[in-house]
Amino acid sequence: MSVLDLDHVFFLLIVNIGIAVLWGNRPFVGKILTLLYILEGLSILTSYHVLLSGAVLSSSLTFTVMQQTVQWQLGVSGGFFALITFMAAGLATWFSSGVWARSYAPIRLLHSYMALNVAAMLLLLASNDFLGLFIAWELVSLVSFLIIAINGGRSAKAAYSYILYAFLGAMAILLALIIIWNATNSFSYVEVRHHWSTMSVNRQLIVVLLLITGFGIKMAILPFHRWQAPAYAYVPAPVAAFLGAISSRMGLFALFIVLLQVVGIDVIQTLWLPFEIINMQTFLLWLAALTLIIPTFIALRQTDARLLLAWHGIGQGGFMLLGILSANALGTAGGIMHVFNHASYQAALFFAVFSVSYRTGTADLDRLGGLVTRMPISFTVMLVGIIGLAGLPPMNGFVSKWLIYKALLDEGMPLLFLAAVIGTLGTILSVYKLIHNTFLGQLRLEHENIKEVPWSMSIPMMILASIVFITGYFPGLLLESIAAMQSTLGISVVDYHLGGVNTGKGNLNMIVVVSTMLMAIGMGALIFFVLGNPRKQVTQWDNYAGGHFLTSDMRYQYSHNFYPGLMRVISPLYRNTIFWLESAIVSTVQFMAHISYALFMQANYLLYLILLVVISLLWVLAV
Amino acid sequence: MQDSLILLVVLPLLLAFLLPVIARYLGNLSGLTGSLLLLFNILLLANAWNSVGYSPKVILLGGFAAPLGIVFYIDKLNMLFAILTTIIALLLWPCRTHNTDVREYVLWLLLLAGCYGVILSGDLFNIYVFYELLAVASYGLVTLPATGASYIAGFRYLMISALGSAFALLGIALIYSFTGSVNIAHLAQIIPDHLHHIWGYSAALLLIIGFGVKAELFPVNFWVAEVYSHADKRVTALLAGVVSKIAVLIILRFIILLFPWQDIFNFLLLLGIIGVIVGEFAAFYAQDLLRLLAFSSIAQSGLVIIAFACATEAGIMAGIALAIHHLLLKPALFLLASHCDRSINDLAGLAKSSPWASALFVILALSLLGVPPLPGFWAKLLLLQSLMAEQYLLLLVLVLLATIVEAAYLFRLFMLFYQRQEMPEQKRITIQGQELYPVITLSGILLLGLFFLPLFMDSLREIAMQTSNIEAYINTVLGKVQHIGEGNI
Fold first, then answer.
1. What span, in angstroms and rounded, lies between the C-alpha atoms of A217 and A228?
2. Residue A157 burial by CB count (10 A; 0-12/13-18/19+): exposed, middle or buried?
3. Are A524 and A433 in a shared domain?
4. Do A171 and B401 touch (CB under 8 A)?
5. Which residue range forms the structural domain that includes residue A417?
6. Does the residue A525 lie in any domain?
């Protein structure tokens, strides 16, 4: 195994970008790009055992400036995230490689931007010090801006709002880096960690808060959550799946590295906010919990399936942060595992939703229904996906969420556990709404001739769905690299086996759980189909209500204003505070801009200036 | 060897006087003589660059020793700015336009002579004289388009410049009346200790405000937007890129050598940060591209001022880096924008009609914004580091917030460029040939310079060290053993 394995990947990525830019319009190119992404993923996977043993894949990409050597090398954490990135990019490109590409004119832009995004993300994941991290971070922001703005119109607007938030974040990070540099004279993780305590406590606090703000903006942490949902929803299908799966996790990766590796969770635990109101760790945990709850309940209100999923993406980010910050072997394992799990089911869900909108032309949950017989594969994929998103067995989302619940309880944080449960409750409610309004109930008349999407689109979906199931069945597959990650970071390591984890107080073995479930379901099916009464197949429009026959043109799909009782209770809580704040800031900036401009446009400016001088001269003479 | 550097000032002046005669015989070719002169100057400077080395040199004019005689002071910083001035001037030299009036060449040459003189002079009075020469030449150049708007802009410029010159002269007079000297090295021995009272402060403020006019310093920069949006684009590029940086250089010399007092630094920091904030906000509001660039140039000058006002080695280094970056970048941006002198909304879809120019504009503007790994980022990083080293946290935050405003208007611009709507045929803007060649050279220097970043940083650090060494300056000019009396205080 060569040492410079990462160079191969970088080379392949450059080839990838080249092909996408030069021949992105050709019909076959999507398949070639898919193969390349798979190849890149494989080239990391083949040397994955090196990473698991704690070594790194180094690259020849390096430079020295300000006595700092910046180099790029991939550790196991970066490798794990890189694999998710290649999975998401590969399957998204596969999805767009066939029939779908014919319906999308700027396909070349899409392929190029996707390749650029993957390359920038890999640079970020392989960065090895703050300078490299910041350079890659800005590149990721720029290329994300490009890919978000791809559709123009609404998506361009969302991209603009994204880039402003991203710059706010970047400036926060830059400030933190400068403060760190001032104290430690270094950008390298090791040096900074070593000299961390030379900073005063106030500085430490400021730096941690700035880093949380900066990296948190990418994962739309509260109160910076407003940009993400429109940015991820109004893009074409493969982009939505890619962004929803991995893009905002870059923020989580950076936070994970910085908080756990550089700052250290022990430092976070000993930092207090001013006046000792609240411990830093508790503060961040509650921030994560709010990031889980509020966006999830905003998702519950959405009537556009894409927005609903995008808002859930933000909420699940809060879940991951909750796990990582719990400072518990199970919790960090759950948080990191949830990154993979979320990527897999979120991409599957986006594919399913976009398949429906590809066929029906809409993702509006008020205008769909009953598609289960027309698009059975999409339905199955969505079913698997929502079970994962809701965190129910037998899918992979259950395992990570279970680990996080368990960690919160073990660490003696029952209120946070409650918050996590409330978040999950909101998730379950809204994913039910999603699948019900799309696939169940009455089929609309105009959807009578809808067909399942072509294979080029359904195969990637099915692959994702099976990943969701398999990693739920054998969570040990993921836990192996997570344990390696924990040991390289020097935090407590999760005790895992193929089926799950061993804890002191009880084990989780998914193989047993899932097998039992499958057996129970099989038993039920056996009773239902073999022993049950004979059944009669009826058409989807053979409906009765209150003893009356319902014709197909009579709408009997209960979709608009879902959960009215719940909404009556909680709707006063939606206050749009952040929206209000955002517009206040925009107005202030415009006001200031107008004043500044007017200042320069003064006709008698010189007169005022001379007056000012005369007055100050008089003042000087008087003194 | 170094004495030949005096030709930098003499030759342009000579040619300026001879050119009307030469033009009679050579016609349009007379423009070429100017280009040749600039080439010669580059050779001269390149030749002298290595021989200057680590120890600064001094040229005695007329053979009298300082402080009585007139001196040219030559160190790496001065040489660097002289070289950059020459390169930019050569790139912007108007000889390719066919019907260039000979008077335009004369004005350019006078402007350049003024620039070299200001850079190299070692005493206040000569700096003032060359500064006036530069100013008068630039009034003429600004009004060259001979449109109503350019006359009004030129008049505005003239008024404010006149005020500035009056201030500067007043400051010099004050200093002379207290010390009896105008030689900077001599003054550097006297002023910091013996004039540390209200009159010293007054002189300092008068000089700073006076030279601040060209440096786009905050309260005396209201001519900038008008002049830059109505003057000839090459002149604009020269004023925004070179002349403003030379004025900042003078201010740097003043605060290092003559007025090294914390109050003055604070005053400059205040003006600088107000300049940054007001400039970025005004650019956010600006509705045409040239004004937008002009306001952003005000903000960038503010950044340079802030860096210099840290008055530390790191600050000087950051300031020089920012100044060089802006000096190379702004002319390119102004040239790219030279056809876009209308509302920015007319630029929607520019990327369709001139894809390369828009891409170049975006890259350069990103560098202006300080996006890594473009050169602007490293300059900005140096600035932030030097601010942090002095614990100016509030300033740091304000600079970063101003960058977000900058990002807001630049990205709005980019999105307009790349909007998918087609530009109407009659309004189509294209950027071609003549402007593109200096632009490509400048951005080439910038982007290729990125590969020599560590080397560049090292030499910058050296230059900053040399610049902040007051002892060396005094000793070089006055001679090591010679200690002139403290004047008639």
1. 9
2. middle
3. yes
4. yes
5. 272-532
6. yes
B487 pLDDT more than 70: no
Q: Is residue B485 pLDDT above 50, yes or no?
A: no
Q: Please state, in angstroms and rounded to a whole number, the distance separating the CA atoms of residues A452 and A461.
A: 12
Residues 41-100 of A with CB under 8 A from B: 63-66
Q: Which of B372, B411, B453 sits opposite A135 (nearest CB)?
A: B372
Does residue A550 belong to any structural domain of this protein? Answer: no
pLDDT of residue B484: 42
Give the number of domains in chain A.
Answer: 2
Residue A282 forms part of a structural domain? yes
For residues A526 and A595, membership in a common domain is answered with: no
**Which of B293, B310, B400 best tests the A interface by mutation, with the highest count of A CBs <10 A?**
B400
Q: Does B32 touch chain A (CB under 8 A)?
A: no
Output the average pLDDT for chain A. Answer: 89
Q: Domain residue spans in chain B?
A: 2-478
- The reply to whether A526 and A582 lie within a common domain is no
CB contact under 8 A, B454 and A64: yes
For the cut 90, the answer to whether the pLDDT of residue B202 exceeds it is no
Is A565 a domain residue?
A: no
**B259-303: per-residue pLDDT in tens?**
998 989 999 999 999 999 999 999 999 988 899 999 999 999 999
pLDDT band of residue B24 (cuts 50, 70, 90) is: confident
Question: In sequence order, what DSSP letters do the residues of B229-242 get, joined into one string?
Answer: HHS-HHHHHHIIII
**Domain identity same for A385 and A519:** yes
C-alpha distance from A299 to closest chain B C-alpha (Å): 29
Residue A618 tokens read as: 């008089």
Q: Under a CB-based contact definition with an 8 Å cutoff, are residues A437 and A452 in contact?
A: no
Same-domain check for residues A415 and A321? yes
pLDDT value for B19: 85
Is the domain of A522 the same as that of A606? no
Chain B CB contacts of A145 below 8 Å = 411
Contacts of A328 (CB under 8 A, 6+ apart): A407, A410, A411, A492
B384 touching chain A per CB within 8 A: yes
Q: Which of residues 459-518 of A touch B (CB under 8 A)?
A: none
Chain A: give the shortest CA distance to residue B454, in Å: 5
* Among A290, A289, A148, residue whose Cα is nearest residue A229: A148
State whether A377 and A485 are in the same domain. yes
Cβ(B34)–Cβ(B93) below 8 Å = yes
- Picking from B197, B404, B457 by the largest number of A CB atoms within 10 A of its own CB, the best residue to mutate is B404
**Is the pTM above the cut of 0.90?**
yes
Comparing C-alpha atoms, which of B28, B46, B47, B35 is closest to residue B11? B35
Is residue A376 located within the same domain as residue A476?
yes
Q: With bands split at pLDDT 50, 70 and 90, how would you rate the model's confidence at A115?
A: very high
Contact status of A189 with chain B (Cβ, < 8 Å): no
Task: Find the residue in A nearest to B291 (Cα).
Answer: A597
